[in-house]
Amino acid sequence: MSGLRRFTPHVSGFLFARFEAIEVDLLRLATSQLVDMLDAGAADPVLARSNGVFGRLLPDAYRDDDEAAAEFRRFTAPGLLERKEHNAQIVLDTLGTERDETETDDEEHQPVTISLDPNAVQAWLRSLTDLRLTLADRLQVSADGVVHLEGEDAPFLRELYDWLGMLQEELVYAIDV
Fold it and tell me: Is residue 12 part of a domain?
């Protein structure tokens, strides 16, 4: 996709996005996993309080007051998780259904064009942020941006983290034009 703009604004206010089929599959998989995680956190407040990824997705409102932070989280976390899940579901809806295994090699290598209305664009921006925050937790990215995860999964997760950041940057650039 070098040389091509991935996100192209249209006079209608929509954006058209072009992806390789494998990129759509990867986005669909990552976003589906995000939906599952958010759903689990919304269903189990104890999990949402104890799992580190939710600390990144729902940072404390009061860093110097644990009691006030816990109270604020108790009232706001369910609604925030629901909105995050709603945004991720919009991303999934715009990505369409999974490819059929009976597709030919030619169909598999054809670029996929996705139409994003202004609401979907905002949902994509928010969900890309949530995906990157989730990966940052998994990669053990510290506040200074250093990745501390080691092992065989680290290179793939790092590339995915960087790729999602690139998508986010390209999307911001396309709406800022």
Answer: yes
